[in-house]
Amino acid sequence: MKAEDLKIVVKEKYSEIATQDKARNQSSCCGSGCGCVDSSYTIFSDDYSTLLGYNPDADLGLGCGMPTEFAGIKPGDSVLDLGSGAGNDCFVARALVGENGRVTGLDFTDAMLEKARANSAKLNYTNIEFVKGDIEEMPLPSDTFDVVISNCVLNLVPDKQKAFTQIFRVLKQGGHFCISDVVLSGQLPEKLRNEAILYAGCVAGAQQKEEYLRTIRQAGFGNIEIRKEKQVTLPDEILTNYLDEAALKGYRASKLGIFSITVTATKS
To answer: What's the CA gap between 168 and 119, in Å, rounded?
Structure first.
């Protein structure tokens, strides 16, 4: 499938999810009602409920980590959240930057942007903005942000090299990112790898871990460090949509690993 077609799939999926709350996403087999192939939307998510700045209306349970945990965000910082969705990480970041900082959320899904802006308006925040744009071609000025964060989004981007090059561009010199994402160790079976719907659920779009780290290095970043890593097991209810019994048995016997990682790096 072409990159633009994959972007359409992702946009359609997340437009559907934006109309549902977290409880509905997590109580159904699939977050967007497409027949038990999308529980991957929620099997990675962490509990944000105890964090300062947490806004339950913005939490759709779509993350695969907690990037603000290792982002080193300070009062007064300017922070960019890529794939900001309903604003979950933005509101947590806003509590960290304080009144003198600024948080920008970037998303290309109109429904998510509408939801995020409504959530922000309820709280009368003046130092959060949500901007429409593509991560591969950010409509944002260079050398602007102290910190870039993102939560389970870059694996949805077809050209990850472009994405990290753009992150490098918009960061200030000496700025850094903290990104939670999904990576692989070993090759997914072809049927899983080529499934666009599962791509939108964050798994089929994932890179090999070493390739992912190499992409970051090639964009110019230094001080690359994996701060947190956890293995994720896809349930049979997902796999049986794509694999027959023999293929499923082979998959389970393989050394394939699907991991959620949180990685940091610096623009030096």
So the answer is: 29
Q: Mark out the alpha helices in 52-207 (DSSP H runs).
A: 88-97, 110-122, 160-170, 190-193, 196-200
| Separation of CA 177 from chain center | 13
pLDDT > 50? residue 27: no
Q: Give burial (CB, 10 Å; 0-12/13-18/19+) of 147.
A: buried
Percentage of the residues of the chain whose pLDDT score is greater than 70: 85
Residue 238 has what DSSP assignment? H
Q: Which residue has the tokens 């007064």?
A: 76
Contacts of residue 29, Cβ cutoff 8 Å, sequence gap at least 6: 35, 36, 38, 39, 237
CATH numeric code, 3-181+211-230+259-266: 3.40.50.150
Reply yes or no on whether the pLDDT at 113 is more than 80: yes
The 10s digit of each residue's pLDDT in 237-247 is 777 877 888 88
Going from N- to C-terminal start, the domains of the chain cover 3-181+211-230+259-266
Q: What is the DSSP string of 33-55?
A: SSSSS-GGGTTT----TTSTT--
Q: Which two tokens stand for residue 258?
A: 């699907």
Residue 80, classed as helix, strand or coil, is strand
Q: Quick one: pLDDT band at residue 252, thresholds 50, 70, 90?
A: confident
